[in-house]
Amino acid sequence: MNIALFTDTYPPEINGVATSTFNLRKTLIEHGHRVLVVATNPFSNEITFDGDVLRMPGIELKQMYGYRFSRIYDRKAMEIVAYFKPDIIHVQTDMGVGMFGMVCASRLHIGSIYTFHTMIEDYAYYVTKGHFDRFARHSVRWFFRTKSNMFDAMIAPSEKIKDYLRSINIDSTIDIIPTGIEFSRFSPEKEDKQVTAEIKKKLGIAPDEYVILSLGRVAKEKSIDLVIRAYKKLLDQDIKKKVKMVIVGWGPAEDELKELTAQLGLNKQVIFAGKVDPMEVEKYYHIGDCFVSASLTETQGLTFMEAMAARLLVLARYDDNLTGTIKEGETGFFFFDEDGLVEKFKTAIDIDEARRKRIENNALKIIDIYSMERFYENIFEVYKRVGKKNW
């Protein structure tokens, strides 16, 4: 099959959609398909095409943590897509390039699929700044209801997302297909211990220090401020080990979080590692001992699963969306608030080796359903169904 993937974000950008699209492209190629990726262009104000990735220029919206909004139609880009002769168009995002994908499907009379990756309602405040929030949310729901009728199939990465789509009265067929992850690249067996030691040295982490890791977009909805305040409470107590916290990633909340860190007197204890190459992100998982996230906006929690694959203990703020992956005390730990997180920090730091190994092994078993091979098998079934529908 010739498959065209349309996305507003793609590596070197770091986020769940970029990672998901990259993994999808990789597994499709490995199974013998031809793949064209259509994405925004963070490098140039011109259309560029290297034979595999077609990049369209866009306007950078700084209030949306660098999101680029491209035009929804471009003649040159359309010519390149048409020359590729896609059998399936698979849209990964909602605006800009995503809408261009819808135009391409309509003009070329090709079967189209949409994967709902992002709970856009939760990001409305970036635009509204708290004003007309109710109207903004109603508008988002209307947009998705209208959009759902334009695709031949819809994919939700989790049961929670499917429930949300049903709750806003979308009655299209929805397949639940969790995003696949190439877990082997995160395995400690692939770790270069010298590289790990060099990263720790660069960040000012001593070999005997316990590392609490936060990794991902540094934005308000990730609630990293809750994690930092809980970490402060942890340090105010009598703990047996030296503990550092490392925040890997970048985003609009970085300056605000650095200010909070300074106010709490944690400049030497909280390390902001900044933006890293998505192809090297596993190296930063290897510096950690436990992984923590207080986000409630994850559609499936890819970073939690990556952390599990890297054999880190996972501490997550309770979310129904994660209950299939994180089982309390068996594959990881849940917390509800700052004080609860402090207790989970202490549990993780003091855990005995036998229990840690048991949790690590349980976690590896439970994330097996997110393997790349299963992901491919599930996604290709949808492709075949949509392809037959449009013969």
Summarize the entry for a quick read.
The chain has 391 residues and is an alpha/beta fold. The protein is built from 14 helices and 16 strands.
Which helices and strands occur, and which strands form pairs?
Elements: E1 2-6, H1 16-30, E2 34-40, E3 48-49, E4 53-56, E5 58-61, E6 67-70, H2 75-84, E7 88-91, H3 97-108, E8 111-115, H4 125-128, H5 133-148, E9 153-156, H6 159-167, E10 174-176, H7 193-203, E11 210-215, H8 224-235, E12 243-248, H9 254-263, E13 270-274, H10 281-285, E14 290-293, H11 302-309, E15 313-317, E16 333-335, H12 338-350, H13 353-366, H14 372-389
Parallel strand pairs: 1-2, 1-7, 2-4, 7-8, 8-9, 9-10, 11-12, 11-14, 12-13, 14-15, 15-16
Antiparallel strand pairs: 3-4, 5-6
Helix pairs in contact: 1-14, 8-12
Provide a descriptive summary of the structure in words.
- The chain is built from 14 helices and 16 strands.
- With about 400 residues, it is α/β, with parallel strands linked by helices.
- Strands 3-4-2-1-7-8-9-10 form an 8-stranded mixed beta sheet, sandwiched between helices. The protein has a 6-stranded parallel beta sheet with strand order 13-12-11-14-15-16, sandwiched between helices.
- Strand 12, helix 9 and strand 13 (about 270-275) form a beta-alpha-beta unit.
- Helix 1 crosses helix 14 (about 370-390).
- The longest helix has 18 residues, at about 370-390.
- The two termini are about 15 Å apart.
- The mean pLDDT is about 90.
